[in-house]
């Protein structure tokens, strides 16, 4: 992570990372270390692409990159100002990210649906904003074993 950030300061476009016996952790460290929210900054840091040095652990490397990119997406959505990532933009961003997965369905529920479902507490919180509330549902339809218990995440954005 530290080495990748130093390469970023040198404005190098790519850095090869030695996996040091754990390619997944090396990938996560490299990708997470290079993350910086700079979308609204005038001067942006150069983009550096970390790559695996060698090819022995490429599957583990890719898994680490995917995990880190997921965490960086959460960081991006968290760090963006509330007037920039509004509920509508948040939902659209998530829908766009998940669009390519055939086993994931995204439902963006408008205020009328929220009212119909009698989600009074949710509507009360949303009254503090000039933006209309959005209820975002994400359905994962691809469990390998259909007998497994469902996995449910609940949160607020």
UniProtKB/TrEMBL annotation:
Keyword Thylakoid part of the UniProt annotation: no
Keyword Protease attributed: yes
A Pfam family reported for this protein in Swiss-Prot or TrEMBL: Peptidase_M17
Domain Cytosol aminopeptidase span(s) in chain numbering: 72-157
GO CC field: cytoplasm
Signal peptide annotation: none
Superkingdom of source: Eukaryota
Keywords on record: Aminopeptidase, Hydrolase, Protease
GO BP, sorted A to Z: proteolysis
GO molecular function, one term: manganese ion binding
PANTHER family reported in the protein's UniProt record: CYTOSOL AMINOPEPTIDASE, LEUCINE AMINOPEPTIDASE-RELATED
Recorded family membership: Belongs to the peptidase M17 family.
Protein name as annotated: AMPL aminopeptidase
Organism: Calyptomena viridis (Lesser green broadbill)
């Amino acid at each position: 992570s530290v080495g990748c950030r130093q390469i970023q300061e040198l404005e190098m476009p790519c850095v090869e990372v030695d996996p040091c016996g754990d390619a997944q952790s090396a990938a996560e460290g490299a990708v997470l270390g290079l993350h910086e929210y700079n979308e609204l900054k005038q001067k942006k840091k150069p983009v550096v692409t970390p790559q695996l040095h060698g090819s022995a652990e490429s599957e583990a490397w890719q898994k680490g990159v995917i995990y880190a990119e997921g965490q960086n997406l959460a960081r991006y959505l968290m760090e963006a100002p509330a007037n920039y990532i509004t509920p509508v933009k948040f939902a659209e961003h998530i829908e766009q990210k998940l669009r390519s997965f055939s086993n994931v369905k995204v439902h963006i529920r408008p205020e009328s649906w929220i009212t119909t479902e009698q989600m009074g507490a949710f509507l009360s919180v949303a009254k503090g904003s000039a933006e209309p509330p959005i209820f975002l549902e994400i359905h994962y339809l691809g469990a390998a074993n259909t007998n497994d218990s469902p996995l449910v995440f609940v949160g607020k954005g």
